[in-house]
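Fold it.
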Amino acid sequence: MALPSVMSSQERAEAARWVEAENRRLAQEINQRNAQPNQNLGKDDFLRILVTQLSHQDPTAPMQDREFIAQMAQFSSLEQMTNMAADFARMAQMLKISEASSLLGKPVEIDTEHGPVQGVVQAVTRDEMPQVLVNGRFFAWEQVSLVFNEIEE
């Protein structure tokens, strides 16, 4: 005996209610964060979609093993890429701090809203956003426009 693989109107209505409730919940979550909706799917979104797909699949035609394995491989790849992106961001931050630190004792020119400032880097902060101390004032690393050879006297 073959079971029909088409959803009944009651099942469609129930699925539509569930989707609407989930959309409302997600909208509230976004509004609570006061953030712009992210146009990229993350690993949490991917896992949520996979779990939803598995829990609402047709029992008479379950997801094939190959499909499930392919989706899990995609999830694993997504997680690895996310971890790599975080590692690259940390590495870029360390390089920025290292590069700023290498300017200690060197003459630089800094762009400011009042015009360029020249002086010798006296100190460097190792914060998330490195700053250089020139002429008794701290400036953002991004404001350094020129680095000069050390002057030999």
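The chain is about 50% helix and 20% strand.
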